[in-house]
Predict the 3D structure of the following.
Amino acid sequence: MLSVVRGFLARQAPARLIRTGIDPAPLMLGNDVLGDCTSAGIGNHARATAALNRFQVDVTTAQAEAFYSLSTGYVPGDPRTDNGGIEVDVLATAQRSGYAITNQTLFPIWGSADPGDENGLRNIMAELSAVYLGVRLARADMWQDETGALPPVWDTDTPAGHGDPTPGSAGGHCLLGWDYTGTDDTDLVTLLTWGAKQRATWRWLRSRIMEAHGLAWRQLMPATRNVWEALIAANDAYLRGAA
């Protein structure tokens, strides 16, 4: 639990996190045909981290699907085994065995956060590039217009014609929280999912969220950035029982 790294989640998060001009370049990574959102989320988290540090890493659909198989037991070509992934198990696999992408294998460290701690979620976005989320989608969230586009903003106030608004009626999903315009209920959070940016209100996220995790990639951080060192120091203080 990241909460034991004292001070990391408890400090006051930025009131706004605006990343205009920084393209995290999320990719679909097979999540349009497979339930590999947990794997796609890790691959896109690595890409978001790289983008913040002014470079990019190459992640292919085949690589994301290979990790999906490794972390969940999915057998390519057998839809009976395409059952999605449990986020903590998938993250543990990435930490233990690595997430293989083009020309390298990345190894994250990670920890879980209280999904109801919105200040903590904002700190993870601000300090660890994006927050890795598990949400319960409603059928109303999946409504599409005549062009096949999702609603421009996911919110709890949905038109009756958009379908069942009950969280979970469309199943679970893994996506990333990238930035936010403010902290009020109707301020917007940018989510990275299905190869695109999707906007949602904080009240929508509060109604849908099931779990939240932070990832850090030492291989993707520049030597001049001190976030890694701060995490190690905070964890060391926890292990020594320091306040």
